[in-house]
Amino acid sequence: MNNEGDGGDDAGMKLAVFDCDGTLVDGQAPICEAMENAFAVFGLVAPPRALIRRAVGLSLPQAMRQLLPHSVRDQQLALAEAYREAFRAARIDGRVSQPLFEGMADTLRALAQAGWTLGVATGMSDRGLEHCLAANGVSDLFVTLQTADRHPSKPHPAMLEAALADAGAGPEQAVMIGDTQYDMAMARAIGVRAIGVDWGYHHPAELRDAGAERVVGTPQELTQALLG
């Protein structure tokens, strides 16, 4: 997908980078179940689901460090691999549901039709993200996909910097849309606008405190915020 008039400094470039889980799709149930299974592998009691949901958006090792604060690096990596295996098994068994939030497909297509370039920056793996987007029929809408497989965990800005480079956009031409304070902090670190969504994992007040210029309540409101 190429924007009309791409090339050169492209003053008309507009790039919208989305977080995935909690922003584009609702995948909290399979995430919590896979995390509980991963902890069970090592005979550990899994954290409450409220705490698991708050770790969504981080890369897996960092999420494990947050969920098990006194663990060592090797234990965090082992738990992360157990989580991957549990999630992979659930997907093979057909137990993973990651539907787009209602109205999100319309928002994505409206932005694409209006000439926006779209991307994703997520703590998911390459394989997980590709499967998720394909299952929801929206893979063709995105020109840049950045994951935890190739970058440090949010809020480090590496994912967003790579998305800007892929799209040929400057920070002033982009907006980051996400549901966690990690998304907001990542954007603000490199001067990208940040818009929070209130249907995900962190409270609107946390999003504002982390740098969101506004928090929207529905995909329709997000469309209006971006298209005017």
TrEMBL record:
A Pfam family that this protein carries is HAD_2
Q: Name one GO biological process term.
A: DNA repair
**Organism, scientific name:** Novosphingobium colocasiae
Which superkingdom?
Bacteria
What NCBIfam families is this protein classified in?
HAD-SF-IA-v1, HAD-SF-IA-v3
> Gene3D superfamilies of this UniProt entry?
HAD superfamily/HAD-like (3.40.50.1000), Putative phosphatase, domain 2 (1.10.150.240)
Which InterPro entries does the protein's record reference?
A: HAD-like_hydrolase_sf (IPR050155), HAD-like_sf (IPR036412), HAD-SF_hydro_IA (IPR006439), HAD_2 (IPR041492), HAD_sf (IPR023214), PGP-like_dom2 (IPR023198)
Q: Name one GO molecular function term.
A: phosphoglycolate phosphatase activity
Q: Which GO terms describe its cellular component?
A: cytosol
| The protein, known as | Haloacid dehalogenase
